[in-house]
Amino acid sequence: MADKRMTEEEVIGELRSGMTLGIGGWGSRRKPMSLVRAILRSDLRDLDIVSYGGPDVGILCASGRVRKLTYGFVSLDSIPLEPHFRLARQAGALDVSEMDEGAFYLGLMAAAHRVPFYPTRAGLGTAMMSENPDLKTVRSPYDDGEELVAVPAFQMDAVILHMNRADAKGNGQFLGPDLYFDDLFAMAGAKTFMSAEQIVPTDQFLSEGSVHTLRIPRSHVDGVVSAPNGAHFTECPPDYERDEPFQSEYAATARDPDAWEQFRKDWLELESHDDYVAKLNERRNK
Amino acid sequence: MTVTLDEVCVVALAEAFRGDGELLCNPMGPLPVIAGRLARASFEPDLMLTDTIAFAIEGNLPLGGDPSSAVIESYMPFRTVFDQVWSGKRHVLMGASQIDQYGNQNFAAIGSYRKPKAQLLGLRGAPGNLLNHPTTYWIPNQARAFCTSVDVVSAPGYDRIAQLPEASRKHFEIRRVVTDLGAYDFETEDRRMRVRSLHPEVTLEQAQEASAFELAVTGDVEESRLPSDEELRLIREVFDPNGVRKAEFR
């Protein structure tokens, strides 16, 4: 059986500028932040990002790495508006494809199932359709003849996501209250890279959660990265809650370009995830 | 006991759920959450409610209370919530930064969609909600929100819906709009917003003054129902002892 363990840098080596990159998690919850920061250390640009967005999207926008954004929302949860995303939108710099939150799920599912679209009523009569020339409708071939929105499959060259536990073969386990849509992201990505709080022997999975938590099967995973605190500052229960003071500091940098530069240097451009965790521990012990 | 405006608003929002039976009552924001929980505790006992995380819970959980203290009756992760939306067994209670006379709603952005003057929440789940199940809006500042036309349509109103085929609009219903001044519905022939009740001491002139469009009026306008003693106790002592609800009026 293949050992799929990799480093953050090796994952970045599999990515290219101009790619469509899916990012798992939801808002400021269980985001693969160590991999997002690894992107900042690289020269990857012009990325098409697909995400239920949180600080992953805000940070990539503020760092000028995003060409196009396909999203259901972008939020920090406890701070409803992602401030860096907000700045990018107000600058008019971002090519956007905004989906109803549920319609976004259908775009992921269509890609995972390798069909061109899934139909829904969501979007009819709203800006989702009128402001997005790429979205089309489809007519039911049955007697009802109903016209529905055809949410296109979100084809993704690569996907990154973060789990509580993984094994070296690429099976993933979530231990928090919600998987979100990470199984669909994993299936939809042409390549999928999964970081995890801990890499454990396969026979240890059930000591921490029921069989229902084993939702990422290894056939959809190409690489596994050991990343304790890998979702910080987003939440990753039961391993840790969101670091709200840290998130507030991050959010405040949107009001001050100098503060953003400083935050970038201090936290986002460290040489490795290990350095980040070490610095985080220093901060916590102060 | 003197009843305060926030408590009248909570009751007016709770009233929107009367008759809903076993729908998932899905309120967004502190005051709406109190209203949903009050509706179940007071007069609509079969409603389903979540802990706002991933579980449908029994009992009277306080706002911000520890969800692990509640009895979980079902699992409600986001995926199941979307399935619930499309199945129709849901009534959402959400906000609106702008709303017009037919109920077209915007909380997405101010200015142009392409380059907004102010990016707000975005479309979120609004497009799907309106096409699939009843929706009620909570607007703590009517004067700021009631406008002649919205900048961005995050959720369609009755005029836009009328342009869609019958199949698309069959599940559409804006049940109620509740503001700091009154409660409104669309039970008019031309589906324009109508004054359903006004909160105590609010006059029709004041309500009209705080609206950029003409409010429809049919018959005598009632005063919004006051909370019962038991409802007041639930609001003040059980659901929101810290008075978080009052912070919404700014």
Question: What gyration radius of chain A follows from the Cα positions, in whole Å?
Answer: 19 Å
The CATH superfamily of the largest domain in chain A is known as Glutaconate Coenzyme A-transferase
Alpha plus pi helix count of chain A: 10
Poorly predicted runs of chain B are none
Largest interface: A-B, 41 and 43 residues
The largest sheet of chain A, given as strand count, sense and whether it forms a barrel, is: 9 strands, mixed
- Multimeric status of the protein: heterodimer
Instruction: Could you tell me the CATH topology label of chain B.
Output: Glutaconate Coenzyme A-transferase
CATH class of the largest domain in chain A: Alpha Beta
H and E string of chain B: HEHEEEHEEEEEHEHHHEEEHEH
The largest sheet of chain B has its strands arranged as 1-5-10-11-12-13-14
Description of the structure:
The complex is a heterodimer of chains A (286) and B (250). Chain A folds into two domains: 244 residues, Glutaconate Coenzyme A-transferase; 33 residues, no CATH class. Chain A has ten helices and twelve strands. Chain B is α/β, with parallel strands linked by helices and 250 residues long. In chain B, the strands form four sheets. Chain B has a seven-stranded mixed β-sheet, with helices on both faces. In chain B, strands 2-3-4 form a three-stranded antiparallel β-sheet. The chains are: A alpha/beta (286), B alpha/beta (250).
Furnish the topology, listing elements before pairings:
The complex is a heterodimer of chains A (286) and B (250).
Chain A lengths: L4 E2 L1 H6 L6 E4 L9 H9 L5 E7 L1 H8 L3 E9 L8 H8 L4 E4 L2 H13 L3 E4 L6 H4 L5 E4 L7 E6 L3 E11 L5 E2 L8 H7 E11 L23 E4 L17 H9 L4 H12 L4 H13 L1
Parallel strand pairs in A: 1-12, 2-3, 2-9, 3-4, 4-5, 9-11, 11-12
Antiparallel strand pairs in A: 6-8, 7-8, 9-10
Helix pairs in contact in A: 2-3, 3-4, 5-7
Chain B lengths: L4 H11 L8 E4 L2 H13 L6 E2 L4 E3 L14 E4 L2 H10 L2 E6 L2 E2 L5 E2 L2 E3 L4 E4 L6 H7 L1 E6 L2 H4 L12 H5 L3 H4 L3 E7 L2 E4 L8 E5 L5 H6 L12 E2 L5 H11 L11
Parallel strand pairs in B: 1-5, 5-10, 10-11, 13-14
Antiparallel strand pairs in B: 2-3, 3-4, 6-7, 8-9, 11-12, 12-13
